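so my prof wants the structure for this chain in the tokens format not the other one, which i didnt know existed until like an hour ago. anyway here's the sequence
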Amino acid sequence: MSWSGWGDPARARELPEQVRTLLHDLLGVRAPATPAASLESVRLPPVALSGPMVEALAGVAGAEHVLTTHEARVRHTRGKSTPDLLRMRAGDGSDAPDAVVLPGSHEEVAALLRLCSAERIAVVPFGGGTSVVGGLAAARAGFAGVVALDLARLDRLRSVDTESMVAEFEPGVRASEAERLLAARGLTLGHFPQSFEYATLGGFAAARSSGQASAGYGRFDDMVMGLTVATPAGTLDLGRAPRSAAGPDLRQLVLGSEGAFGVITSLRLRVRRAPAERRYQGWRFPSFAAGSAAVRALAQEGPLPAVLRLSDETETMIGPARPDAIGAGGSGCLLIAGYEGATVADRQGAGAAVLARLGGEPLGADPGVAWERGRFSAPYLRDSLLAAGATVETLETAGFWANLPRLYDAVRLALLGALGSPLVMCHISHVYETGASLYFTVVTPQDADPLAQWQRAKTAVNTAIVEAGGTITHHHGVGRDHRDAYAAELGPVGVSVLEAVKSRLDPAGVLNPGVLVPPAGGC
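here's what i got, hopefully its the right format
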């Protein structure tokens, strides 16, 4: 994983000259005045932990699993949001942990949490490092130091129950590895977010991830049948049955908790038979409103594809997430429908009848195949655009169908008001009978302070989403970037519930401080 960008550094590409010219002519994008920092030149604060404290951590996890090197600290600094990358490209490693600790068992995680709680050391659980909401930058004030708790050694598939269709994994298993292990048994999770190649199963649960095939397989939280969680107060072992009426479901306290309440050390996940066939098809609609009506019809009446996504006019025009294809998407609004499993032809035919009845023009399999091939590539294009002098970021929300047009307009107007004349694209990518998500991508030329420039825009958008009645996040999580807006969404009583859970499970407040839970009196 690149320390200052996305994914495999070997897949990074410079934008073609014609694309750089287009960005300059269309948006006024100019190359940055200073080159990006090297890993060696990133500025880090001195290690705050004392020698005896580092030795105490080593006494739990083993000396070889406690790292304080420059490179280890840099690689565990922040996540992969655009503000995170802008800071790293500028050589700012001020949020670096003092040490990286790699526990090898639930017992070691529990012992480390007890130690850190007693010594007031902040702990940031670290999976794939793919957070895009400031979820990996702990508040330091009042703590003796910060430890990144890297779960990479907890990387086993523990068991598969093919009668119940449940598999137990450790949290550090990457999604791509989980699919490989399950495919050997003819199974799948069906969870393919854009971070699929690098994110971990524990991270999916902690952030309530939603994959690109969520219409067919559900969100990740739908897949979680049980969890084991280490907390400073003790261990939670949750989930004895698929559903229960035994009081509130405490699994829901952990799902979406972003490491603020505990550290997931085991997950029992629902699995499915691997699909016998996959078919992806493209459709064109004359407008985003017409396409949205067709998507809603499939969500409410069926047949619902496994993958269903609709790009607005701007995103369709810009085209696939490939540097050599920018501007090649055509007019109207592109819809991708992907059917998986058995009887694919019958369900695809029934879905096509609905889409055609509502004004869709069939485009054949090529657009769907092109999307499938490039669906994990967009973050690499973001890196290329950042290097060329454009600020690129994504944000998402969700709402009920009746409110979706208002929400769509509110976000676009907030971005235009904050940034002047940015390029704003949007798609619907996760659908339900009652509503859907909206996923926006914005491109704007970097000004003299691109970090402050984006923070102004993000603040405006967060306010607009709350005022327009949307949720502050559908699947990226809360982190630090959405924390205040999340408090406004919850209200004072909701915030007090979070505070009560935090104080009971983490009385010293060492777990990911500053993330998710608003500071006292902050609502």
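also thought this was worth mentioning. The chain has a mean pLDDT of 95.
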